Amino acid sequence: MTVPHQHASTPGTATYQDLLAELKQHMAELQALREQAIEALTPAVQDMVRSGSRDVQRIEHTLDKLLGVACLPEGLTLFKTLCRHYWTLDPQATASYVHAYREMWDTDDQSDTDEVAP
Fold it and tell me: What is the 3-state secondary structure (H, E, C) of 22-91?
């Protein structure tokens, strides 16, 4: 006699809904971390731009961090602001950051009006 296949999950086995709920939780946590990073980086970007900072190491370190949050509108705004400032110091290095942004976050369906260029 053959026992029909049952769809009930066994203890310790996550269902699709459980996995989806866990993924949503992790995404919410990641979103919160990105928002905290933006909040923390905003004064640094404002200070560098306002003071006309020429500290390339600090600028690049900040741009590296901003790349991770440039998927959010507020993060992209900070990234653009610092890129525009850095452009006056090193256009070639700035272009490499813009390229890195495009590699990470640009989608094929974005319009040309969403460009990051300084």
Answer: HHHHHHHHHHHHHHHHHHHHHHHHHHHHHHCCCCHHHHHHHHHHHHCCCCCHHHHHHHHHHHHHHHCCCH
Pull the structure tokens for residue 53.
């900072």
User: Domain for residue 3, yes or no?
Assistant: no
Residue 1 inside a domain? The answer is: no
- d(Cα 115, Cα 118) in Å, to the nearest integer? 9
Domain count, the chain: 1
Q: pLDDT digits over 1-42, tens only? A: 554 444 454 555 679 999 999 999 999 999 999 999 999 999
71 is a domain residue:
yes
Kindly give the interhelix angle for 16-51 and 73-87, rounded to the nearest 10 degrees: 30
Q: Note whether residue 86 is domain-resident.
A: yes
